[in-house]
Amino acid sequence: MSQVKRVYTFGNKQAEGNGKMRELLGGKGANLAEMNLIGMPVPPGFTITTEVCTEYYKLGKDQVVELLKPEVEKAVKYVEEIMGVKFGNNEDPLLLSVRSGSRASMPGMMDTILNLGLNDEAVAGIAKKSGNERFAWDSYRRFVQMYGDVVLGMKPASKEEEDPFEVIIHTLKEEKGVHNDTDLTTEDLKDLVKRFKAAVKEVTGHDFPTSPWEQLWGAVCSVFDSWMNERAILYRQLNKIPEEWGTAVNVQAMVFGNMGETSATGVCFSRDSSTGENLFNGEYLVNAQGEDVVAGIRTPQEITIIGSQRWAERKGMSEAERKATFPSLEEVMPAAYKELFDIQKKMDTYFKDMQDMEFTIQDGKLWMLQTRAGKRTGAAMVKIAMDMLREGLITEEEAILRVEPNKLDELLHPVFDKAAIKSAKTISRGLPASPGAATGQIVFFADDAEAWANQGKETILVRIETSPEDLKGMNVANGILTARGGMTSHAAVVARGMGKCCVSGASNLKIDYKARTLEIDGKVYNEGDFISLNGTTGEVYEGKVATQKPELSGDFGEIMKLADKYAKMLVRTNADTPHDAKVAREFGAQGIGLCRTEHMFFEGDRIKSVREMILANDEAGRRKALAKLLPIQREDFEGLFEVMAGLAVTVRLLDPPLHEFVPHEEKQQREMAAELGITFEEVREKVHSLAEVNPMLGHRGCRLGNTYPEITEMQARAIIEAALNLKKKGVDAAKVEIMVPLVGNVKELEYQKDIIETTIAKVFEEYGDTVEYTIGTMIEVPRAAVTADEIAKVAQFFSFGTNDLTQMTLGFSRDDIGKFLPEYLKRGILKVDPFEVLDQDGVGQLVKGAVAKGRSTRENLKCGICGEHGGEPSSVEFCHFAGLNYVSCSPYRVPIARLAAAQAAIKESKMK
Ligand code: PEP
Ligand code: MG
Fold first, then answer.
1. Needs which cofactor (predicted)?
2. CA Rg, the chain, in Å?
3. Is 804 annotated as a binding residue?
4. Full DSSP string of 487-517
5. Beta strand residue intervals within 260-306, DSSP E
6. Tens of pLDDT along 120-173?
7. Confidence of residue 675 (pLDDT cuts 50, 70, 90)
């Protein structure tokens, strides 16, 4: 009988799993196995697979524990043999750590238990064996606290309430008149354990579990439980991690960084995760456990001398002071440092990626606790990919695949305006935890940040330190400022992952959550006051500071060039003004895929003529107003065609319902009446008559041009006259494509095409010259997709308007989805917002079918997409596989789409 294997052991340079088994063992478990296989000093342990997590939610706790028992008991024996100590033996006990580890890293999102296996007897054994009673009791009180919080549910649900254990520590410190945890004596720690246990009994009604096995099963189950905690669910939503993946559980022999002055613990990176610089870096704490570094409770020290010196320079600290107060690991424990340095180098080369590693030094001996590909900023991502390509570690294709397209966004975002920053007043300085510039109003609580964001306010979330509960607030804030914590604190790691500006550890901040004030050097700032952050230098400024466009690095240009080499699809942009078109060209746009002509109608005085046209009672009146619009539109097109010289520009004819152009407030209606020389009542009446029950399904798109052909005539004339004028001037201009919106029936297109061609023939005759042009249509009504073969007989190109196509296929109003989307996401009815990420199974099938049908009647039919999905990486990939010729997106998303297009092409070539 074949049996499912649920537990994989590792230790002593051997492992049952390996680095390729991420899906089954989670990222951490797979890497722990692989680290053993390449000879790293890893504390032995075992991984319970992600499949067990799924079983846990199907079968429940009791049944899963029964299923696991034989394998876990065997695995614990395996660890006991390697360590030479026994789990549950009071004289010389084996202690364990229990941690989560899913396929994708989710820093701090799920639960961890350390020092598991301790009880009143075992603590004495540990004290005796280590000869360090204080260490033993410190470990014990940490264990009771962690276990109480995580497994026994003592952690308060609301962040307004304090952790009951922290309250007890605080009370004891007050009683003893001490400030730091390190000032607590062994007797104090014993007292704490007693008080902690009493609190557990009081809150849960049960004694704290003394049996190590009971503790172990409790911890394992609580890791599985934490897969479904609120912050893990939110993190998965934000990072598009499927719930089905589940988490693995890693159980490992404890090693201790808190055994005294020859012990330490830390986090390190093989390259700089902010800038990408190929420089080993990280932070450590002497006599501490791993969680202390991440939690930001004590200020960690730099690992390398160079890092320490750079840190001191930013703080304005002298070399002598640095050496005396914040020396590097390289100086404090040179032998362990040397070993760590060699290991990180080996891992960087072996895994061919920047590694984020955790280590512990127990009494001088180095242990590697985990490694994973490090989270990094967009800039670092690009630099590391290009550096590794130059170092010969990876290929061009791998370099392209290494960069997450969405992370490029960070490189394109503003930095502080150079002039404005000169006069800005620096009020604090912290660590440059995540680069960029941010300005906003001070807010202290994540919930408020969210509420304020909903009101359209820009915020800076200011916290003593952040925790995973703050995730939502961090996500909506422009920037994050913390008083405590280093470069590897929760705030720093999460902000970098989000591409959000963050300054951490600005130690002169005095934050009073109750009073909602921030005091800096005696000056008080209130909630709502503006501050600005420079995440690249760590500076904090008073008030608002203007921002400007970033300068793009050489590596950015290089990776973009590589992307274009591999991409099969072109990337165009959606732009309506010469300015936007210019920006997009700088970002590498290879044409305009959508010029929404109606946007031109709102500029300057034009809206007056547009309104005059709409309010006209008959064709003659409309023609009169359109005659005023003609030269303006022509001029707009001339500007656009000139900027896009040599490239294709798709101009879409008027699309929105007319009532979008008229004023709805009485005051503005009266102004409009005065401007047009008609009565207010006439205006009101006309506006009223334009109202529709379902305007998005009403008198819009080609229905406008088919009922008021003179509008189409004017627009076709303006487009072609612009092209002819440029030709006359000898200007190299764009190739014109005229696009008819919202076609659902081929007859609608035929009718429009006829008007366009007749008008253009007239213009050609008037000018005695011609230009090339094509006429195509948007595919944005499901009927158009289904009858694409008929439509392609008339249309020379298709452009998928996936905004409307999504709206009409799903029957979701694009303007009202906000009312139910959050609930749908929460319940898992939808995995993502279909207006952001193309619904490949529904809308995508219409796209695929329409491409095939269209090309069945017009073999060379050019197909593109111009809905918002054209700049979303997974949708761009879909478009590649659907055989589209190009995607079109907003200017700032052009680099993202170029990279996504290249990645899709590379993935396809790998499949072959
Ligand atoms: C679309 O519907 O996808 C589209 C691009 O047009 P608009 O968003 O202007 O309706
Ligand atoms: Mg549309």
1. Mg(2+)
2. 32
3. yes
4. TTSHHHHHHHHHT-EEEE--TTEEEETTTTE
5. 264-269, 281-286, 301-302
6. 999 999 999 888 899 999 999 999 999 999 899 888 776 667 889 989 999 999
7. confident
Q: Computed from CA positions of residues 311, 315, 321, 326, in that sequence, does the dihedral angle turn out positive or negative? A: negative
868 CB within 6 A, ligand 1: no
Closest CA to 434 of 399, 478, 372: 478
The Cα–Cα gap between 501 and 414 comes to 11
Q: Which of 602, 780, 836 to mutate to test the pocket of ligand 1 (most atoms within 8 A of CB)?
A: 780
pLDDT band at 1 (very low <50, low <70, confident <90, very high): very low
In this structure, which residue's CA is closest to atom 1 in ligand 1?
A: 801
Structure-block tokens of residue 640: 């656009």
* Residue 837 near residue 853 (C-beta atoms within 8 A): no
395 is in an annotated binding site: no
Beta carbon of 465 within 6 Å of any ligand 1 atom: no
Domains annotated for the chain, with CATH where assigned, are 264-376 (3.30.470.20), 414-548 (3.50.30.10), 567-657+692-911 (3.20.20.60)
User: Burial, 219: exposed, middle or buried (Cβ in 10 Å; 0-12, 13-18, 19+)?
Assistant: buried
> Would the CB of 300 count as within 6 Å of ligand 1?
no
Structure tokens at 842: 């529904």
On the question of pLDDT at 907 being above 80, the answer is yes
Letter for the amino acid at 627?
A: A
| Whether the CB of 806 sits within 6 Å of ligand 1 | no
Q: Is 664 annotated in the active site? A: no
CA torsion through residues 346, 350, 353, 359, sign: negative
* Residue written as token pair 């049952």: 16
Q: pLDDT for 826-848, tens place per residue?
A: 888 998 889 989 999 999 999 99
Give the pLDDT confidence score for residue 247 in this predicted structure.
94
For strand 591-596 and strand 570-574, is the pairing parallel, antiparallel, or unpaired? Answer: parallel
Q: Is 206 a residue of the active site?
A: no
* Host H or E run for residue 29: helix 22-37
Contacts of 43 (CB under 8 A, 6+ apart): 11, 252, 253, 254, 255, 367, 369
Q: Which residue has the tokens 């952790």?
A: 163
Rounded CA-CA distance 61/322 in Å is 52
Provide the token pair at 22.
């991420």
| pLDDT, tens only, 376-395 | 988 899 999 999 999 999 99
The whole-number pLDDT of residue 297 equals 63
Q: Which of 142-151, 606-615, 736-745, 763-772 has the lowest mean pLDDT?
A: 606-615
pLDDT in tens, 289-301: 776 666 656 788 9
Is residue 467 pLDDT above 90, yes or no?
no
C-alpha angle 72/75/79, rounded to 5°?
135
pTM: predicted TM-score of the whole model, two decimal places? 0.80
Q: Is 195 marked as a binding-site residue?
A: no
Q: Side chain identity at 405, as an amino acid letter?
A: P
Neighbours of 452 (CB within 10 A): 20
Cα 770 vs. chain centroid, distance in angstroms?
49
Q: Give the residue, out of 572, 576, 594, 742, with the most ligand 1 atoms within 8 A of its beta carbon, to mutate for a pocket test.
A: 594
In angstroms, the CA 395 to CA 377 distance is 21
CB of 866 shorter than 6 A to ligand 1: yes
Give the CB-side neighbour count of residue 321, counting CA atoms within 13 A.
Answer: 7
Tokens matching residue 223: 């890791």
Tell me if residue 418 falls in helix, strand or coil. helix
Q: Starting at the earlier edge strand, list the strands of the sheet with 7-11.
A: 14-15, 7-11, 45-48, 247-253, 96-102, 112-116
Count of Cβ atoms closer than 10 Å to residue 820 Cβ: 12
Q: Among 600, 650, 655, 800, which residue has the most ligand 1 atoms within 8 Å of its CB, making it the best to mutate? A: 655
For the chain, give the percent of residues with pLDDT over 90.
72
